[in-house]
Amino acid sequence: MTGGAVVDVVGGQALQITSDHDGDVDVSLVIPTFNEAGNIADLVRRLHSILGDAGVSHELIVVDDDSPDRTWEVAAGLIDEVPTLRVLRRTGESGLASAVVCGWTHARSRVLGVIDGDGQHPPEVLVELLAALDERTDVAVASRHLPGGGVSNWSATRRLLSRGAQALGLLLLPGTVGRVTDPMSGYFLVRREAVAAQELHPVGYKILLEVLARGDIRRVAEAPYVFLERERGESKVRPLHYLDYLRHLMRLRVLPLRSQALARYLAVTLTALVVDAATFVWLFDGLDLNLTRSAALAGEVAILYTVLLLDLWTFAGRVARTALDRIRRLLGVQLALGVLLFGRLMVINALVNWFHLGPLAAFLVALAAMTPVGHLLGSRLTWRPARG
Ligand SMILES: Nc1nc2c(ncn2[C@@H]2O[C@H](COP(=O)(O)OP(=O)(O)OP(=O)(O)O)[C@@H](O)[C@H]2O)c(=O)[nH]1
Ligand SMILES: [Mg+2]
Questions:
Q1: Number of C-beta neighbours around residue 78 at 10 A
Q2: Is domain 6-254 given the CATH code 3.90.550.10 in the classification?
Q3: Overall pTM > 0.85
Q4: CB within 6 Å of ligand 1 — which residues?
Q5: What is the largest CA-CA distance in the chain?
Q6: 100 CA closest ligand 1 atom index
Q7: Spans of all domains in the chain
Q8: Residues with CB under 5 A from ligand 2 (ion)
Q9: Where are the alpha helices (DSSP H) in 259-313?
Q10: Tens of pLDDT along 198-215?
Q11: DSSP 8-class letter at 349
Q12: What is the DSSP string of 91-130?
């Protein structure tokens, strides 16, 4: 069928990038494809010529998920013309991020890269990315959000979705997502050493997120690019990919916790809600304290309850090492959550005075709305499962 030019790969296996490489090749560039038969030839020729002109030795690795339009076959037909091209035809698994890692496990050089196969990533930027990857830099990202970069013709909805996804990532994993201006970029280079020892678990589309979160990354460089319009073929982006992204974020954020710690964390969080509400009712109804005082004291009791239990029980032995550390951190959390508590008092009073809600209803609304924010804020200061 293809004269041995195509390597058949069966997906679904654990992917480990080894530290072995053939120092003779400067860069191994993976091109993930699914139904890109109309785009692949132009792109491969351009990449080969641009890299050749720049004196960059390279290999181009097309990883095709057994496309019905036989992209793998079209690519294989180019190997005589472009001898640096290799073609993997993967069966039994599909997905952009896992295709990229699959390609990297077959790569030979010290520098690994990825570029879309549909021509939307301008190949010239690769030379800038390579130049940006100096000795101290482990990742070079092509960014749409730097001066000189952009998207050609995106609808307002797509822009909003993309920026919303980025903002959510920033909230959940600031230390990872905040390292680059375009964490959603699918066009970047990474040094093999930075990801070789790590186990990558690619989910969905966002392979850069995985690399930044799990890799051992010292410095990140960026170069601007304009995301071009697709000229042939169809986008493979589906609403499901947004769910994959959420799953990916949650995985990076929560999964590093062992299941016992997770169960204890949830137990503390849920009982804290009960402690908060019960204290409020006791102070307000039982002791006849006024609304603001009752809500403030109940909040304070819940903060102390949560922080102490997380420290002494849920994450025992993991967080503060000495008593002094513990006190210092407790004060830090106290300060941050104190501000939030002040916000809660304002919300409760506004709900009662302006919207004429009953005191308990107002308290419960504020509790439901602000507790997640408190946990997010508290988690920054008390424990840190992922590198975010
Ligand atoms: N191997 C493989 N490649 C994929 C898969 N899904 C998408 N791709 C490729 O990944 C690249 C990016 O996919 P696109 O669908 O173009 O996504 P996008 O560029 O982010 O979005 P658009 O602007 O809508 O095109 C293209 O080269 C696709 O062919 C997949 O499941 N497996
Ligand atoms: Mg595309």
A1: 19
A2: yes
A3: no
A4: 32-34, 36, 63-65, 94-96, 99, 116-118, 120, 186, 230, 235-237
A5: 87
A6: 1
A7: 6-254, 259-382
A8: 118, 120
A9: 259-281, 291-309
A10: 888 888 788 999 999 989
A11: H
A12: ES---HHHHHHHHHHT--SSEEEE--TTS-S-TTHHHHHH
